[in-house]
Design a protein that fits this description.
heterodimer, A: seven-stranded mixed beta sheet, 19 helices, B: about 100 residues, mainly beta, six-stranded antiparallel beta sheet, transferase activity (chain A), transferase (chain A), CoA transferase (chain A), CoA-Trfase_III_dom_1_sf (chain A)
Chain lengths: ~475, ~100
């Protein structure tokens, strides 16, 4: 296309932006990698403050306490995953107001659910309990049966007529080739991932999969021009993205389906509040014509849409993100999926724990500890939510007009690959050094951090009428 | 007529529809798509169009159940025909409830 406006929108979101970052260390380095990948000039300054050591960040995040055998010692991950979380917040603070960077600013978001829900490390079982690492005929497989309906699909997955429980799953997968198990699980929409080793490939952490007409760039200080965020997501990653945008000054409207509320509402209230306080709550019947019209109306007024469903779900409701991008100037659409929007991966699902396994974390932990371990608590969720907020705000600042697609799988692989040593020896050496530092400093004993929301989240649908009244009579 | 089993995959004889059996009862049944009996995944397609009485189409990812809720099919590929069991058109089941945590 020769149209210069379209060409501008497809360029990296922060092209032409200069972001000054003071810090020195792994978190700041990751922030610079992210900003550079978004097109910004983020060259380091000379005399910045040192970042927290990645081993200590791992402890402070609570993930040290959450990784290891239940009755064994907490385990160190030799990758700076907690520092990556701090790095995303550093990058975010570099392009927006209202968020303070610093040690723990991102990393404590990784362990916060476990603190609220009282979750503990449990070896090859996720702290939340729904994901297990199981041996198949040829490798380890992460099987995450988080929804009640997943259990009803297990007999079809494993071709058995018996009542499904973990003992049966373990028995049936033990003799089966993992490729066949993966293929059938994907058809059934089950979250299953192979514990492959980490990849050294250079895949990006976000993709621009559609573009529209951008608006002029927006200033760092919002002044009167408050963006409207329509948050269609649920559980952890998407809602965290919405919460961070709220803190950056956006007006966030959370939309739930009347027949399928955010599942996190039935979990601990303190965790739901942490992710959703400050958002208006709209509830719609997506099966009715009126409900779908109102959803479309909201999306048409949005500056940023956050959505964490498989692409076909909205398409089957008559909402086509790619088409909306073309008709709504300045819109930023954040798509969060398990494995991306391309076919066939668009139909696959992932939750936070299995995504971590799929990105190589369990294979890596096995190499350095000799044990079968799930790393952290649903680690793909908070890391993806953080990255999604950075993608969203970058695009908004530069005028929007982009569909930015992030997947749990690719975000985690990006974090894993950053600072991944070249050899197994180097990895083991680093593991030993970091583990010793954690023990000697006393940080190894740190429990998951306590973070609480300052306010309660709105009850479901509490703001439906007010929100639509404000949008005007056409809705 | 066939006795279905959980996990069996079948395809339509005359459109693109493919399904996997999620659960069923142990009895002989006539499972059709577009009004014609569904076939094994490696079976040969027939020529022709779906019977207009069974041509509402199927949607990938949707689950279809019979009126007695004893048989459930997952559509793994959408097509033009509608699914029916012993002549009765199957209805779309509501979406899965989300977990409270994962």
């Amino acid at each position: 296309m020769a149209d210069p406006v379209m060409a501008a929108a497809s360029a990296a979101p922060l092209a032409g932006f200069r972001v000054g970052l003071d810090g020195r260390g792994v978190a700041s380095d990751y922030a610079r990698v992210l900003l550079a990948s978004l097109g910004a000039d983020a060259s380091p300054r000379r005399h910045g403050m040192p970042d927290e050591h990645p081993a200590l960040a791992w402890c402070r995040s609570g993930l040290m306490a959450l990784t290891g055998q239940r009755d064994g010692a907490p385990q160190m991950c030799p990758l700076p995953l907690a520092s990556c979380a701090d790095g995303v917040v550093t990058a975010l603070a570099g392009i927006g107001d209202g968020i303070a960077a610093g040690a723990g600013s991102g990393s404590r978001l990784l362990g916060v659910r476990a603190n609220i829900a009282g979750l503990r490390r449990n070896g090859a079982i996720s702290p939340g309990g729904s994901c297990r690492l199981l041996p198949t005929a040829d490798r380890l497989l992460a099987v995450n049966l988080a929804r009640d309906d997943d259990w009803r699909s297990v007999p079809a997955w494993l071709e058995t007529e018996r009542q499904a429980d973990w003992a049966l799953v373990e028995e049936r997968v033990a003799g089966a080739p993992s490729a066949a198990l993966l293929e059938r699980a994907r058809l059934l929409g089950l979250a299953v991932a192979a514990a492959n080793p980490p990849e050294h490939s250079a895949a990006p952490w976000y993709h621009i999969t559609a573009t529209g007409t951008p608006r002029p760039p927006r200033p760092r200080h919002l002044r009167g021009d408050v963006p409207l965020v329509v948050d269609l997501s649920s559980l952890w990653a998407g809602p965290l993205c919405g919460q961070l945008l709220h803190r950056l000054g956006a007006r966030v409207v959370k939309v739930e389906s009347e027949r399928r509320l955010d599942g996190a509402r039935s979990g601990p209230a303190a965790f739901y509040d942490l992710l959703n306080a400050g958002k208006a709550s709209v509830r719609l019947d997506f099966t009715s014509i009126r409900g779908r019209e109102r959803l479309r109306c909201l999306i048409e007024r949005a500056d940023i849409v956050i959505e964490a469903s498989r692409p076909r779900a909205l398409r089957q409701m008559g909402i086509d993100a790619e088409n909306i991008m073309r008709t709504r100037p300045g819109l930023t659409w954040i798509s969060i999926t398990g494995h991306g929007r391309e076919e066939p991966q668009a139909g696959w699902i992932a939750f936070g724990d299995d995504a971590g396994v799929g990105a190589g974390l369990s294979a890596l932990m096995r190499d350095v500890t000799g044990e079968r371990l799930i790393c952290g608590d649903a680690i793909g969720d908070p890391l993806t939510g953080l990255h999604a907020a950075l993608a969203a705000w970058s695009s908004y600042r530069s005028g929007g007009g982009r569909l930015l697609a992030l997947s749990l799988d690719e975000v985690l692989k990006h974090c894993v690959r950053f600072a991944l040593p070249d050899s197994a020896d180097a990895l083991c050496d680093r593991h030993d050094r970091w583990h010793r530092l954690a023990l000697e400093s006393g940080a190894a004993k740190l429990a998951p951090p306590k973070v609480r929301a300052r306010a309660k989240a709105r009850p479901s649908g509490a703001d439906t009428e007010t929100v639509f009244a404000r949008l005007g009579h056409r809705c | 007529m066939k006795t279905l089993k959980a996990g069996t995959r079948l395809k339509s004889a005359i459109c693109d529809t493919e399904v996997m059996v999620i659960r069923t009862r142990p009895a002989e049944m006539l499972l059709c798509c577009g009004g014609i009996e569904m076939i094994a995944m490696d079976g040969g397609k027939s020529a022709g169009q779906p019977d207009p009485a069974f041509a509402q189409g199927t949607l990938v990812g949707k689950r279809y159940v019979d009126e007695q809720d004893t048989t459930e099919l997952l559509c793994t590929k959408g097509g033009k025909g509608s699914l029916s069991l012993d002549g009765q058109v199957l209805a779309v089941k509501q979406a899965k409830a989300l977990p409270s945590s994962d």
